[in-house]
Each structure stands twice: as C-alpha cells, then as structure tokens.
C-alpha cells in the first residue's frame, strides 16, 4: 500500500448505515453510532415516508465523508405500517432499489459499499451491484 493510500484510509474508522429501523437499532446497540462535531450522524433510518431524495442525499454524504470506511445499505425494508398490514399487503420498501442507479454508479474503494438483508427479506445476490462487478471480473 502506498503512503498516500494508507494516509487516506487510516482516518476511516466508522461504519455508516442506511436501513430500516430494526437494522439501525441493532447496529446502534452494537456500538456503531456516532455524531461528529458538525452534528452529522452516521446512519439514516428509512421508512415508508422517507423521500428518495433524502436517501440519495444520505448516500452522497456518507460516500463523500473521509471518516467512513464501510457503508451498509438494506436491500429491502418493511415499514411499521406494512408490518401491521402484512396479512392484507406484503409490499416492501426497497432502499437500494430506490436509488439503484446511484448505487450502481458508485465505483470507489472507500467507503466500501455492502448491501445487507433486512429482517423480513433475505439477501438477493442478483440485485447486489458489487457482486455483479465481481462476477464480471471472473467472467461469470
């Protein structure tokens, strides 16, 4: 690793998360929560009312910050309302899917971007942009 690379990565000590309430709560309980001197959080809770522009703005902010090493983003989120109405309707809010073009365009090594499953939906490898790039590398 070159000196410039190591100096640019040594300050990257935080995880950032864009996800549903359950994922964020679990990760905050695990100790990832941080609020910097500018009162910026390293997480965004997404629900059915969250605007796509808000999710994209958080994604941009997290990927531009120099203190974040890894950005976790839920592929799917089920809102509290949808949990209550699950018998009648099983619609999911797809966080990564809502901003898929932005996620797919992201090519930087840091922060590393990882799509994670939510409590109610399993991980879907066919939607993961990073996995798609790895598969292309190996000619799959």
TrEMBL record:
Its annotated function is as follows: Subunit of the V1 complex of vacuolar(H+)-ATPase (V-ATPase), a multisubunit enzyme composed of a peripheral complex (V1) that hydrolyzes ATP and a membrane integral complex (V0) that translocates protons. V-ATPase is responsible for acidifying and maintaining the pH of intracellular compartments.
Major site of localization recorded for this protein: membrane
Protein family according to the UniProt entry? Belongs to the V-ATPase F subunit family.
Can you supply one Gene Ontology CC term for this chain's record? Answer: proton-transporting V-type ATPase, V1 domain
Q: Where in the cell is it found?
A: Vacuole membrane
Q: Which GO terms describe its molecular function?
A: proton-transporting ATPase activity, rotational mechanism
- On whether Ion transport is a keyword of this UniProt record, the answer is yes
| Assembly, per entry | V-ATPase is a heteromultimeric enzyme made up of two complexes: the ATP-hydrolytic V1 complex and the proton translocation V0 complex. V-ATPase is a heteromultimeric enzyme composed of a peripheral catalytic V1 complex (components A to H) attached to an integral membrane V0 proton pore complex (components: a, c, c', c'', d, e, f and VOA1).
Q: Which UniProt keywords apply?
A: Hydrogen ion transport, Ion transport, Membrane, Transport, Vacuole
Q: Which Gene3D superfamilies match?
A: ATPase, V1 complex, subunit F
As for membrane topology, the entry says: Peripheral membrane protein
Q: What is this protein called?
A: V-type proton ATPase subunit F
């Amino acid at each position: 690793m070159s000196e410039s690379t190591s100096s640019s990565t040594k300050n990257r000590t935080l995880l950032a998360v864009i996800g549903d309430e359950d994922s964020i709560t679990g990760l905050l309980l695990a100790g990832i929560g941080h609020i910097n001197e500018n009162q910026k959080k390293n997480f965004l809770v997404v629900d059915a009312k969250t605007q796509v522009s808000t999710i994209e703005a958080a994604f941009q902010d997290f990927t531009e910050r120099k203190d974040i090493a890894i950005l976790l983003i839920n592929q799917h989120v089920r809102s509290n309302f949808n949990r209550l109405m699950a018998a009648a309707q099983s619609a999911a809010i797809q966080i990564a899917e809502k901003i898929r073009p932005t996620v797919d365009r992201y090519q930087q090594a840091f922060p590393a971007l990882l799509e994670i499953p939510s409590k109610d939906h399993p991980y879907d490898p066919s939607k993961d942009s990073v996995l798609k790039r790895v598969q292309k590398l190996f000619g799959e």
